[in-house]
Each structure stands twice: as C-alpha cells, then as structure tokens.
Design brief:
single chain; mainly alpha; Trna Endonuclease, Chain: A, domain 1; Serine Threonine Protein Phosphatase 5, Tetratricopeptide repeat; five-stranded mixed sheet; 9 strands; 60% helix; 6% strand; DUF4365; ARM-type_fold
Length: 912
C-alpha cells in the first residue's frame, strides 16, 4: 500500500459518489456504494490499493485484453466483495478488478490476478461496481400497500411513500399524511392551503392520539417547543403510536443534548409492553443504541445494534425495516473497534444479503445546492448579506436539509443526521433573526460533534459579533454532561471563548478538568487515555489566566506531582500550560514559593526536553540568576534565548555569541533554500530573523544586520521573513539609517508577487507583501506614494492592513474618513489595524479628539476580539491621561475579559 495512491483512490471513489472508510481491517478501504443519484444502496466493498509505477509502465495482455498481471497476490475467503485497485501515478487513473476465486491463478510458486486497463474507476463504472457489491444490480421492490400498523413509522422515516399526491383533494388528508408532511419539512404547505383542514381535523379528532401526536410534533418542528411531545402519554395507545412517540421523544432529547434521559425513556418504552411489531421493536433498539454510544455504553449498544440489524432479513419487503437494519449495521461497524468484539464477522455474509437497497433514497445527499460548501468557504461577515446571497433559490435546498435532518434523526441514522443537521444549522447561522435561533444552531453543531463548522462560527462571532449567543451557550455549558460527540466541541468552546467567561465559570471548568486528569470518566470519547489527557491540558492552558488564584495553585500542585512526560505531543501541551503560567506571573508580578518552584524544577528532570526547557523558562522568570538557562544561552541555545524575555539586560559577550550563531543559521537557511530543499524543522515557536532583529536593536554596538539583509535579498520562506519584518515595523525608528538604505531594494522586491519566495509552506506561510510594503512605507514614505497606497487599499487584506499602517504613520487628517470606512471591512485584521492606529493616535496626542470620537463609534459595536486588541495596546504603554481615557471607553463593555484585563493593566501601572 502507498498512502499517496490510497488518498488518490479515495478521492476518485468520492467523486463517483461513494462513501469511503480508510484503514479498515484486512483492507485499505471499505466502500459504501451509491448509485448515480448518490443514493446509498447499503452495499459494501473492501478495496486493496497497489501503487507500482514499474508495473504500470509494462502492461501485458490476457485473452486479447490489455492490462497488468499482479503477482504475489493471495486470495482468501471473505464475506465482503473485494476489489484490487491499481493506481497509475502518471495518469492519476485507478484500474480495478473484482477479486473472485476463479480470477486468481496459481503458477506453482505464486498466485496472480489480471487487472484490465478497460476497468477504469469513473462515473461510467458505477453500475459495474454496484453489481460487484450485490452480485447483481438491486431492483426496487414493488411496494404493496403500507399496512395501517406501519404507516406511522413510514410517515417519520419514509414520508415520500405516505404523503398525498399534491393534486388529490384535501379531504383525503389523514393524521399520518400530515405527520409525513412534517417529516418532509413542508411547513409552508401545512401553514397555507392545508391549515384550515388540519385545524378542523384537530378539533374533530381531539381524542385521536395520532392527531395529538401530530400537534405535539408540529410544535417541536415549527417552534422547537418540546413540552407537548415530551409529555405525550404512551400508555393506553396502540403499540405503533407508542413506538413512534418513544422514537420522537428520544430524537428530541438527543437534539436537546440529553442522551441519558433519552435512554431512560427508551428503556421504559421497551419494558412497558411486548406487543410492538418486530420492526418497531428494532426501531426503538437502534435509537437506544444511538444514545448509549453517546454516553459510552458501547457493549450494551453493540448487543442492541447487532440484534436490530437482523430485521432487514426478517422483513425484507419493508423499506423502513431495511433502513433500520442498515443503521444498526453501521453501529455494529462503528462499535467493533470500540468494544474489541468481532463476533459479528460471521454474520456479515448473511446480513449483507438483506441490507438496505430500495430504501436508499431515504439517505440521499440532498444538499445538491452546495449549501455545505458555501457555508464552509464563503461564510459572510454580515448575516444580512447572507440572506441576500442565499435568496429564494436556496429555499428548496434548505427545506430538504431540514427534512433530511428530521428523517435521519427519526431513523437514528447518526452519521447522515450529523451531516444534514450541520448543514441546516449553518443556514441558521447565516439567516437567523434572533439570538435564540443562533443559540439553537450552535447547539446543534455541538450535539452533532461538527467541530470545524462550530469553530468557524465561534471565530466569526468573537471577531465580528454578536457575542450574546456564545455567552448564553457558555453560561449553560456543563463539561460533566458532555457526550461522545459533543465533548471535543465543548473543549473547543471553553478554550476559545474564555474572554466571555467569568472567573467562577472558568474555575468550575478548570476544577472539572483537574478531576478528570486524576480520575478520568470520559476517556471513551478520545479512545486513548493520553489523547484525552492531551486535550484536557490544552484547554487548561487556554483558560489558566482567567482562573482564580486558588484554582491556579491547584493546577500548579498537579503539575508538581504528575509522573514524567516523555510523549512529545503531550509534552508540548504541558509546555503550553507552563507558558500560560509564565505569562500570568509576568502580568501580575507574581512570586513562587521557593520550595514549590524547586519541586517543579526537580520533576522537570524526568520530562521530555521540550517540557524540561519550558520549566526552565519558568524558573528563569523567578530566578534571574538562574545559571543553567544562562549557560545554555552562552553556548548558543536559541530555545533558551527565546525564553529569556529580557534581551536588554543580556551581557554583551552572550549577545555577540548569539548573533554569530544566528548568522550561521541564516546562512544555512539561505543555502538550503537555494538548493530547493527544506531548511529543517519548523516546529519552533519563534523566528530566527525576529530574534536577531531584537538583539540588534537592544544591543546596537553588538549588532550584525548583514544576516537580516541576506534573508531579505534571498527571499526565503515567509515563515521567517514575516515575523522578522513585523518586528522591524514595531521598532523601525531604531533601525540605523545605513541599514535602512540597504533594505530599500529587497523590500521593494518583496512587495511584488509572493510566489517569488524560495520556499512556500501552504499551511503556514503568510503573505509577505503586506508587511514588506508597510516597512518600506515607514522607512521611506516617498517610495510609497499615495497612488500606491490607494492601489494597496484595493488589494487583499494583507495589503490593506499595510496601507493602514502607512497612513497611521503619516498622521494625516484625511485618513480619519478612510479609517471610518475600513473599520467595517470584511477582514478582522484590517479592522484591528484601524483600531490600533486610532489607539496609537490617541496615546500620542495625534488628532486626539477626532481619533477618540471615531474610536468611540467603533467601540459601541466592537466585538470581543476588538476590545481585547484595545486593552492589549493600552497595556503596552505607561499610565497617562489618554490611556486612562481609553480604559474608560471600554470599561463598560459587558465582556468578562474587560474587568480581568483592566485589573492586570492597573497592577502593571502600580508596579512601574
């Protein structure tokens, strides 16, 4: 197997519409087949991928067919259909053969199989691959009339088979048909032409439990009111109604993030009666399995799912039975690894024959309108703009997304529900008119465990507002109640939204996390205990600075007592926690008890070098005579140098050594860049160029600017250039005039296209054009005339930000009107640059009244992150009337970060 070949084959199969699981036991891939409309057919194929360039260059023939003989191929019996796939790196095509016993030929010493060139995996081969999965193409079963006892189940998970024909007279509408319309999210129809008919039916049949069930379900779907459905009595009703009511209650409770209560409801429903139909019984069982998985009861869920999976065999003519069986089998696959139980393997061959086929359309990917892709890649800054962008043309797609989330939820189809519910929630985030709707959408993303979309939405709210939905969620969030799907999302929320959390709430989260480190109860969420520990420590690192002193002390005590950390990833997370402690100590001027500090340093001797070094940094903060770290700096340890914090007070001898060492490293980076290879590991958290600039500026008599100029002239990766140039921007007035002149030409070159850099890191490189333009404009204003600034303002966010920096330095009154417009720019970094410019003008008494007036308007609607930017800027300046005035401007903002940062700033001022 070649990972590159496997990745390409996965993409090819997904383009064909198939769903793929990688690294399945005894195979590279497990493929869930779908037809041309992307309907899930319930069939499975194991795929083995081979990537052999030398073989592909030398095709053979077999009975007139061109292809390739794959030798050393072992055949073994398997309940799954199997494909062997050859991947051609040159053409990026994948060729397949169905592995059967008769196609594997023995040569005496080995076995071989022929892969025909004509068998290319593409859209034209979908039918052939489906035939491989089933032995023959599945034919849609002719559905007899749906029995009355099953119609309610059909209405919830196969509503297309129940809804009345749109041209039939309204008098034929029944309660089950009305429920089917609810499952299809036809709220407009139900509120429009049919409303009077349904209202009349509700009045005429107020004692009919199926109509009452419709009424309760309508309230939940239309207004998300749960009281009527959760209080719906399941006693003294027919078994099919009781089963449907139990399923709906479980669905509602699951979406309300109450799986434990859903389990209780379902267990009560299963124990209450023994007259459920076999399909209804399996239906209740898969719902119970779904909720048990969320709370970590994997063994019980596995037993239930395996039992329910047999219903497809027993009731083959019932498409809802086949759907339930398919969902149950997905749970079995999912739980095999989690439980370590493989007893189902010998049942696969039998169950496969009765897996869902003609029910496939129930699980189709209905988001053909591209809403998911739109939400991920083009999330508008303004939700008003989003409503215009979405428009009426997306209403059908949104209705289908809502319908699919309902149908898959009622069917306990966890994976399909997660996708549909996430897409529907993303639409709500773009179009919601109220805070409650935004809270609902964010909670759906949490419950579904869709972390990427949730973090994107969270970032938008923090950077652009409103903050109220996040604040409401954070006030109600309990890590104790988190589930298998929601806990990673909850961890992300707590870490990212710390600016909205008051000290009491942060303390509660931190204490729960400490308890979990000592006695873990949710390890099942991450599978491996060290992964869980790693996630917890990362959250603690993010929230440490917002904890009370008492809780901080408990975290420190825990650090002292834990065993040595050798795992690199775990050590990196603990190192981040130590850095958070260092930052807090510096902010508040805290001192450590000597005995406690010594215990921490002593335990550091048994740790990974990364963590050990960070602990040494902590000691250096509290022990300025710490010879060990000082000695490391003396011998050229850049990690130690980066951690020293105070370059101004380093002895000249050490600075000279460090500058020489950095110059050598710069030459190494340039040489390797010229050769077209990577210059080594970039896991460090600092830039060589940035440190060198700091040393040159803080010790001008020891300075060596030549390495800086060489990096600029040779245009190496922006992973080094951008932080270094930004450091020069902050200290541009201290750059010697002759050095600035030498920088002029390379900076002008860097203002051009960024693809002229020697090394490009797609995931980590920033655009160097903006910082280069800003530095050139600061050093040589005449080289960046207003015509060029105007051109930069029409560029991307990096160039606009650079233009703002240049205009801020020129301090012209005309810039204020431009700043006012740019304060509403789509990019947060541009807004941040505008605010930084105005704060600086106020502090430096540059058009102070006009600047403060504009800043006041911006602060009125400022996001959490923008307020944090203002506080951070003020904290870097000494106390003054202007600084006090700026603090007064943000003091009344209702964000938890404000009083916390105000106290830090005032403490710094008192210590100064």
């Amino acid at each position: 197997m070649c990972e590159a070949g496997v990745d390409h084959v996965v993409q090819i199969l997904r383009v064909c519409g198939f769903s793929v699981i990688q690294h399945y036991p005894r195979a590279d891939l497990l493929v869930f087949v779908r037809d041309h409309q992307h309907f899930d057919l319930g069939g499975f194929i194991k795929v083995q991928v081979k990537n052999r360039p030398s073989l592909m260059e030398n095709p053979s023939t077999d009975n007139g067919r061109v292809g390739w003989w794959v030798r050393d191929f072992a055949y073994h019996d398997d309940p799954f259909p199997r494909l062997l796939v050859l991947f051609d790196e040159n053409s990026e095509e994948a060729y397949w053969v169905h592995v059967t016993k008769d196609k594997v030929l023995g040569t005496g010493q080995e076995q071989k199989i022929f892969v025909p060139r004509e068998n290319v995996i593409n859209n034209e081969s979908v039918d052939s691959l489906v035939e491989v999965a089933f032995g023959k193409l599945p034919q849609p079963a002719e559905l007899p009339g749906v029995p009355d006892a099953d119609r309610l189940r059909y209405a919830l998970i196969a509503p297309q088979l129940i809804v009345p024909h749109p041209h039939l007279p309204l008098r034929t509408l029944s309660s089950v048909e009305a429920i089917a319309l609810l499952s299809l999210a036809q709220m407009r129809m139900l509120k429009g032409t049919m409303e009077y008919k349904i209202t009349g039916a509700l009045c005429s049949h107020h004692d009919d439990p199926s109509w009452r069930l419709y009424s309760a379900l309508f309230k939940w779907i239309d207004k998300r009111r749960t009281d009527a459905i959760l209080s719906f009595p399941s006693a003294n009703v027919e078994a099919n109604i009781a089963a449907a009511a139990g399923v709906i209650k479980a669905t509602v409770l699951f979406e309300e993030h109450l799986p434990q209560r859903a389990c209780e409801v379902l267990k009560d429903a299963l124990a209450a009666r023994d007259d459920y139909s076999p399909v209804d019984l399996a239906w209740l069982q898969v719902h119970l399995a779904r909720n048990l998985i969320e709370i970590g009861e994997f063994d019980e869920a596995w037993d239930l799912a395996l039992e329910a999976s047999l219903i497809g065999r027993r009731e083959y003519q019932d498409p809802t039975a086949r759907y339930v069986a398919g969902v149950a089998m997905e749970f079995v696959f999912q739980l095999n690894d989690l439980t370590g139980r493989q007893e189902a393997e010998n049942l696969f061959r039998t169950i496969m024959k009765y897996s869902p086929d003609s029910s496939s359309w129930l699980r189709t990917q209905i988001l053909a309108g591209g809403l998911t892709d739109f939400s991920e890649k083009n999330y508008p800054q303004s939700r008003d703009d989003a409503k215009i962008i979405l428009g009426k043309e997306c209403e059908t797609t949104i209705s289908k997304a809502h319908s699919t989330s309902l149908i898959t939820g009622f069917a306990a189809d966890a994976n399909a529900w997660r996708r549909a519910a996430a897409a529907f929630a993303c639409y709500f985030l773009l179009s919601a008119d109220s805070i409650d709707e935004l809270v609902y959408a964010l909670n759906i993303l949490r419950v579904a465990g869709v972390q990427d979309e949730l973090e994107l939405a969270t970032s938008r709210f923090l950077h652009f507002g409103p903050a109220e939905p996040l604040a409401q969620i954070m006030n109600e969030l309990s890590l104790e109640d988190a589930t298998k799907s929601s806990l990673p999302c909850d961890f992300a929320l707590v870490g990212n939204c710390v600016a909205l959390l008051d000290t009491c709430t942060v303390d509660n989260h931190a204490l729960w996390l400490l308890k979990e480190l000592k006695n873990p109860s949710k390890t099942y969420v991450f599978g491996i205990s060290r992964w869980y520990e790693n996630e917890i420590i990362q959250v603690l690192a993010k929230i440490y600075g917002a904890c009370s002193s008492e809780v901080m002390a408990k975290i420190q005590d825990y650090l002292i007592t834990i065993p040595g950390i050798q795992d690199l990833e775990l050590a990196a997370s603990y190192a981040e926690l130590i850095k958070s402690i260092i930052e807090d100590d510096l902010n508040w001027g805290k001192e450590w008890d000597n005995e406690k500090l010594q215990k921490l340093v002593t335990r550091g001797k048994i740790d990974n070098e990364l963590l050990k070094g960070t602990i040494e940094q902590l000691r250096a903060v509290h022990d300025t005579n710490y010879d060990r770290l000082f000695g490391k700096i003396r011998i050229g340890d850049l990690n130690a140098l980066a951690s020293w914090q105070d370059f101004d007070h380093l002895p000249d001898g050490i600075v000279q050594r460090a500058v020489l060492h950095l110059a050598n490293l710069v030459d190494h980076i340039i040489a390797t860049a010229a050769s077209g290879t990577l210059p080594g590991s970039y896991s460090r958290s600092y830039s060589h160029l940035s440190i060198l600039v700091h040393l040159n500026i803080s010790h001008p008599h020891c300075a060596n600017w030549r390495p800086c100029l060489r990096m600029l002239n040779n245009r190496v990766s922006s992973i080094d250039l951008v932080p270094g140039i930004e450091t020069m921007i902050d200290e541009y007035q201290k750059i010697p005039a002759d050095v600035a002149r030498d920088m002029r030409e390379p900076l002008m070159g860097l203002m051009g296209k960024s693809d002229t850099l020697k090394i490009i890191y797609p995931d980590r490189d920033a655009d160097v054009r903006g910082p280069a333009s800003a530095l050139l404009g600061l050093l040589f204003p005449e080289d960046v005339p207003m015509t060029q600034v105007a051109q930069m303002l029409r560029g991307d966010a990096s160039l606009v930000k650079a233009a703002v920096k240049i205009l801020a330095q020129r301090k012209e009154k005309l810039s204020l009107s431009l700043f006012a417009r740019l304060s509403k720019h789509d990019s947060f970094e541009v807004r941040e640059a505008v605010v930084s410019a105005l704060v600086t003008w106020v502090l430096e008494d540059v058009r102070a009244e006009e600047s403060f007036s504009l800043l006041t308007e911006i602060v009125a609607d400022a996001s959490v992150c923008l307020i944090s930017t203002i506080l951070s800027l003020v904290s870097q300046h000494p106390r003054s009337d202007a600084a006090e005035k700026l603090l007064g401007l943000v003091a009344e903002k209702d964000y938890a970060v404000v009083p916390r940062q105000l106290e830090i700033i005032k403490t710094k001022w008192e210590r100064a």
